[in-house]
Each structure stands twice: as C-alpha cells, then as structure tokens.
Amino acid sequence: MSVRAGSAARPNPQQPVGTPASVPVRQPRKAAFASFLGSLVEYYDFFIYGSAAALIFPTVFFPSESPATGTLAALATFGVGYIARPIGAVALGHYGDRIGRKRVLVFTLVLMGVSTFLIGCLPGFGSIGVAAPILLVVLRLMQGASAAGEQSGANSLTLEHSPEGSRAFYTSFTMSGTQAGQLIATLVFIPVAALPEGMLMTWGWRIPFLVSGILTIVALFVRRTMEETPVFREAERDNELVEIPVVELFKNYRLQMLRVIACSLFAVSGTIMTVFALAYGTGEAGLERQTLLWAGVIANIMQLFAIPLWAMLGDRIGRRPVYLAGIVGAIAAFFFYFEAMSIGSVPLIFAVSALFGAAASGVSGVGPTFFAEMFDTRVRFSGIAISTQIGFAFAGFAPSIGYALLGTGTHGWIPVAAFGSVCLLVAGLSAVTAPETGSVAITDLGKK
C-alpha cells in the first residue's frame, strides 16, 4: 500500500534509530526544567522558613523576656526540619528506587506545598499558647521530610535523562532551582520585612507562606507530565531492582555513603551565611534587615548564573577540581563576610556576598552529579537521599551551633567562621578521595 508524501509518521528525534516506541527515551531539557521548577518551589518554601525563623518567629511563636533565648529557640526549629530529613530520605529513597523517581517527586512537591501553606495559617503563641510552637514544629518536620526526597530525586531524574558528556550541566539545574527558590523567597520577604512592626507580626509574615500554594500548583502541573527515566525502566524491565535498597547500600556502598555524608557538610556554609548571618547581623551587628536581605539576593543571583557555568567546566575537566575550588572560595568568604558585618561596611557586605555566591556555585554546579555518579541505578535515589540528608542534618543546626559559639565584642564571630571552615575542610578532603566519574558511561556508574 502506498503512503502519500508527508503522511508518514515522523520519528522522535530523541529516540535512537531502531529503538522500539515503547522504550522510554531521554528528555534532558524537560527533565532539567521539571527539576528546576520543583526545586524552586521546594526551596522557596524551605527558605522562607529560615528568614521567618530569624526575623519573625522569636516574637510570634517564642516570646521571651530574653530576645536571645527566643532567637535561639526559633533557630532550633529551623534545625528540626533537618532531623526529619534522614528519616524521610530512607522512606522516600526506598520508593524512589522501587516504584520510580517521578511518582515520589510528585509526592514530595505536594507535601512541601501543603505544610508551608499551613504554616502561614497558624495562630501565634498569643492566641493558642504552647500549641502554636508545637504545631509549627510538626509542620517543619513535614517540610524536612519532603526536602529529603526532592533534591536527591530530582538529581537522579535529571542525571538519568542527561546525554553523556553533559550530565553535570543538565543535572545542575536542580541546584539552580534551589537558588532561584531562595532568591524568590528573599525578594518576597524584603517588602514584607519593611512593613510596620504591628502589621508584620500579625498578618504580613504570612504572605510568603500562602503564596507558596500558587507556585506548587504550577510546578506540579509540569512535573506530572515528566516521563520516568530510561535507565530505571530498563532496570525494572530486567528485574534488576532490589527489594530493600537501604540494605544493598549498607552492604556494598558504605564507602560511597561516607564520602557523600562528609561532602554534604558543605551545606553548613549555606545555613551560616543565610540564617545565622541574618540573626547575627540584625542583632549583635546592628544592621538593617533590608541590607542583609539584599545581600542574600546578590549571592543568589550570582549562583543562579554561575552554577551552570561551573557545571559545564565540570563536564570538561572533571568534578573534583571544580568542587575543591568552591570549597576554598567559600572558606575565604566566611571571614570576609563576618568582618564586613562587624565593621558595618555595606559595600563590603555586598561584595563578599557576590564572592560567596560565585565560590559556592562551584560546589553546587558539580555536587549533584558528583554524588549521584557514586551509585548505580538500583540504589541511586536512596544513596543520594540518605547520605546527603545525614550531612545536611548537621547543617540544619549550624545556625544554633553558631549562636552558641558566638563570642563577645567586635570579633565574636571568629569561632563561628572557624567552625564553618572546619566543616568545609572535611568536605573538601572527602572529595579528594573520590574517583572521577565524568567519562564513565551512565550504565557503568557505581558498578561493583
């Protein structure tokens, strides 16, 4: 039977010749976009909590005769979200390696959106007493459980959809989404923080939390249309999936897990430079909220553009040198940033914020790929989730630890910067021991 010219079905340009139509194909751009949007929403939600914990919650949920006590209690609830992360990582990682990356990522998005929206609806301590901070902690735990699966799942999804030779570039959009979420969170908080104190502490602080509902709906629509990854479908088809991924991890991937846990201590730099610095700057250093919020905007804008550039470099020269360059730059930024705050130099604060953003982008640009490439398909979601969240849990309490270490006088911040630097050095030394995986085929990653 003849076929008219132009009536034949056009082949999928992303599908290799000879590949059956039923076999999933890679969707690198769509995967990167879906991961970017999902991470944006997740970390918008997660970081508006950090800003509120430093500026709002000591008054609304933890009123105390001592402002320092209220601040310490509020910062501790920020850390509580990180306690739920390792627990959520085990559960979500298990299902991500058993039923697929996409389904779990839809669940994490809904869980984060609901918990954040409900925080915006909570009455304060003055209305319901001790029940207010208890409910706040419960919702923060839900946020933490969601975040445990989001980044690791998005990294797995994007990596497994990426073409060889560009894995770091495409996977880096997960972290770009994280920075975009933090940037939007800060931009939303700037006009809110400028409200008169009475309005701010009653209804104004709720606006950023309620807005998250709109962002969640948009990201959920995009994520639901995403295909499962080809390598996961192939492992599923060939009955290669393991019954209990966490058992396989602890049996055959202990060294890789320890490496990623140590490397994840880099996250301490982020929580100290954002949450702790915001509390310290507006308290002991006597700086304006707006100044430090705008400094955060500068750092996030820098990271938003620098992350994919560092990732492309990581695809060319390897993951380790880029990661280590980021470590060195971030350590330097610690000391310059707190010195700038202690002397009240706004131009220097902005300049060092940009420096930190550029340096941290080295780690953020290659870290998602670097960690994911240490595990094979069967345990990748669980491996990244459990390992990173153990390291991130420590980072969650870094603001509280920093506040406890804070000395008196102009240079009371030095113990805090030293603490952060030690964490970064541990992360860097661990990265040195890891093999380079940029040139290894995705089907060979993590093989024993």
TrEMBL record:
Residues 31-438 form the Major facilitator superfamily (MFS) profile domain. It is a multi-pass membrane protein. Its main location: membrane. Residues 1-23 are annotated as: Disordered. It is found in: Cell membrane. Keywords: Cell membrane, Membrane, Transmembrane, Transmembrane helix, Transport. This is MFS transporter. It comes from Rhodococcus jostii.
